[in-house]
Write a structure and sequence with these properties.
Length: 755
Amino acid sequence: FLGAVSLHDVRLLPDSWQAIAQQTNLDYLLMLDVDNLVYSFRTTAGLNASGSAYGGWELPTSELRGHFVGHYLSASAMTWASTHNLTIYENMNAVVAALAECQAKIGTGYLSAFPTSLFDRFEALESVWAPYYTIHKIMAGLLDQYTYAANSLAFEMLLGMTDYFGSRVEMVIEKYSIERHWQSLNEETGGMNDVLYRIYQITGDAKHLKLAHLFDKPCFLGLLAVRADSISGFHANTHIPIVIGAQLRYEVVGDKLYKDLSEYFMKIVSSSHTYATGGTSSGEFWSNPNRLGDTLGTENEESCTTYNMLKVARNLFRWTKQMHYADFYERALINGVLTIQRGKEPGVMIYMLPLAPGSSKAKSYHGWGTPFTSFWCCYGTAIESFSKLGDSIYFTNEVQDTPQLYVIQYLSSKVLWTAAGLSLDQRVYHMTSTDPVMTVTFNFTQLVLGKTSEAKLSVRVPYWAQSSRCLLNGLELQNLTPGTFFDVSREWKTGDKLSFTFSAMLRLEKIQDERSKYSSLYAIYYGPYLLAGMSDGNYKLGSVNVSTPSRWIKPVRDSNLFSFTQLQQGKLQYLAASSDGALSMISKPQHGSEEASLATFRLKLLPSLKTIEKIQVKDVTSLLLDREVSLELLNRPGRFVTYFGIEDGVRLTNGKSSGFPSSSSVFKLRSALSGHPGEISFEASGIQGCFLVAQGRDITLECERFNKMAASFGVTTGRASYHPMSFEAYGGNDTYLMFPLSSYSDEKYAVYFEV
């Protein structure tokens, strides 16, 4: 097997998106109070509890309470390894110490935020909310505290829990039967087999191996063992962790059946149950294979499932070195995991990822969570995901004499390659919509000067690269093939530089649905990035050639985005459009909101539609005065602010088929009628003396007896902005602004398009 590089030996560099996500996650973990986290553990143990319980799924009335604390233990341990932040180290040690007091007070080895009566109900097959799910999280958290932070107390506590639950399982089998135990596993039990196999790897104790195997759910793993594609109707996140545990059985026991069944599982999920994001499940369950077309809604892709499928793919790659597992990992991480957070807001994350046309991450059953009142299952897996972003960039081959390092992700980072006596500094310069080339450089430094030995670096050449180049110290190397590893062996020394360039291309992929009615439903990618189009429900592109997307998907080449404001009754109001095209004045929209994109306009200069690449706010109120312009809405390319006559409404309309605005969408920028510096007025080019006027919320065209203040607007930088990978997709039916789904906040979008 390939070896994992320790998180202690990898550091994300601050210019990467992943480093920003990691820091946002760290900020959230540091917001959490130790006493509040362990509140229900203390009350359950009969100890005095300071602070107060958190809300959501951590409420004292929630039967799943305590699960997030387990995730916190794992996430904080991995964050400590990834950052060596001393505050998180102190906090997590305080949590472990508090939990140790609770376990000692109970005195049986049991540790949870809820009483043992929930397990009595579980074993009696009575209704209860997944107590073993929570226990798995706590045990895995303690194990991670031991593994990543060398906390021996955590491991002692873990062994106490293992003995306690081992006795409970044995009691059920003796009192009833082994079948009764299997029957109880129909309730979600998390990855109990996984954590127990990991414990066995450390202890070598046969009782831990036996207990782990008792959580290998046979009615599910048996289907995979006989290669039956029968996962439809199963709860996805109940069963993916069971496969992960089965993978651990293969690693610790060598039982090849478990390797084969996990490979088969990955094959059927990735080929017939996976969305364009790399995620899976609808409403938490698997649908029929190759029938995803009618599952697109607000409750797609539970975040937990993506977290766990990445574990499955990672294990398979370590075993086989097969490229398609690394490809899957890249896709699901970039488009599934990195889309969970709401920008840089700590503790604001999603449960589901909506995929229906006109969806918004803010508009699902759960929507965006809050830092202290959500604590859903997906909050737990999210804080783990963002704490270990450095664990699957590099892998080592430790079964040969020559040190070998595999690089499967392009992520600005530093890694200690101790086996080769080297430090590597990987720098990634991402493509943009106007420059499709991603550049990756590796700079080498010897850990001991003068000591060299041969080592092999194996860099993944992505399948999505249209062309690739490699330079070693300025000299070009040949034979890079997409979808393979490119090996470079030499005696590396300080100052060596290996650089790659990968040219990304636009491409379309069909939805996993064999039915003819969905045969024209496609997702659009740019390199590894899934592009979503801003949409309030439209998803039809019309007649376009799916094999030549670059002919009808064009990069956005200017960023002349502005918002226009007016002070009304002491409050700043913004000119904005609504989804039906009406214009009005609204309160200041929040960055990342749908309203922010509706209150941002691209300023186009006429008559040639020529754009100045970088128009500044000061230019609008000076250099551009008396120029003819049109206002194109940011999120609806080709739709312009249009007037219909004197004292009539003003609204958005489509421009000409050529992309030019109609004559009634042309205005002359004038000095503000108010006389205020820094403001402008919009005069209808075709009706001299008539201006855009804000009558309270309403926008009209007025020619006589109007308030000059109401016809004057301030100019600010747009409330929304273009992503560096922004495109405009010109279809026969509509035009869409497209950029990576991972960068959407509250804006509405479409992921699949009918072509």
